[in-house]
Write a structure and sequence with these properties.
By secondary structure, the protein is of the alpha/beta class. Helix content is 41%, strand content 17%.
């Protein structure tokens, strides 16, 4: 339940179009719903502005569908990440309106009252095509939660002219997510070109000495661009979640 949902619920009670008992029934699962294997946090949108997200890795298809369905019943936009194909099909069977992105390994259901609106602009960049799964996870996350997303892929530092060619797209964003493996240099370059927060995502892409993304992680943590901050290896979701909050704040400030 979002803040606007709660206000509308209270307004209905005040107008007499909804009984207090019916309102209490709707609020019965707040702040969480105990499914036995999970306690679904229906209160999260009220606390931080975005709903809980289902991390499907390590969960059975049945568990994932149950959590997804619990969130969907609350009327919020629902996102599941790191979804295996069989689990994705199980979610889609229960929620035909949901969308599966096989590259991002996500399933998203847009259904909130403001699902057609955008709040803020997030650019998602990746250095190379091998970084696409993480970049797409970030892009889908940002889109699901209402940001306008610009995808700028395969603009790594090995061909810097490719990045400079999209410089105007970078300048229009409220926040930028940059996904890169190998030595992880791209976020520092982007950070030197823009006046907005840059969220760097090291990916587990590279040869042996990349150590599964650790080299990119350490390089990004040592960035000389002071507007660059870093999330964990392959965490496109976490980067986008933060970028959405930044973009919303920037959009609200302009209003």
């Amino acid at each position: 339940m979002t803040g606007s949902d709660l206000l509308e619920l209270l307004a209905e009670v005040e107008r007499g179009t909804l009984t207090p008992e019916a309102a209490a029934a709707r609020l019965a699962t707040l702040p969480f719903e105990d499914l036995g294997h999970a306690r679904v946090d229906h209160h999260r949108s009220l606390r931080i502005g975005l709903p809980e997200v289902v991390f499907a890795a390590g969960k059975t298809a049945e568990q994932t569908v149950a959590i997804f369905s619990s969130l969907a019943a609350d009327g919020v936009d629902v996102l599941a990440t790191r979804v295996e194909p069989a689990t994705a099909q199980a979610i889609l069977a229960a929620h035909p309106a949901a969308i599966h992105n096989a590259v991002a390994r996500t399933v998203a259901l847009r259904q909130s009252a403001g699902a057609g609106e955008t709040k803020g602009h997030v650019a998602v960049i990746c250095a190379g095509t091998s970084d696409l799964p993480i970049a797409e996870e970030a892009a889908v996350t940002a889109e699901t939660f209402g940001a306008r997303v610009t995808r700028l892929y395969d603009v790594g530092v090995a061909g810097l002219h490719r990045l400079l060619a999209v410089r105007d797209d970078l300048k229009s964003a409220n926040a930028i997510v940059v996904c890169a493996g190998m030595e992880g240099a791209l976020p520092s370059v982007v950070g030197g070109l823009v006046a907005v927060p840059v969220i760097a995502v090291p990916t587990s892409v590279g040869y042996g000495a990349s150590f599964g993304g650790a080299t990119a992680l350490l390089g990004m943590l040592n960035s000389c661009s002071p507007n660059v901050t870093v999330v964990n290896i392959d965490n496109g979701f976490g980067a986008a979640y933060t970028a959405v909050l930044i973009a919303r704040g920037a959009a609200h400030t302009r209003q």
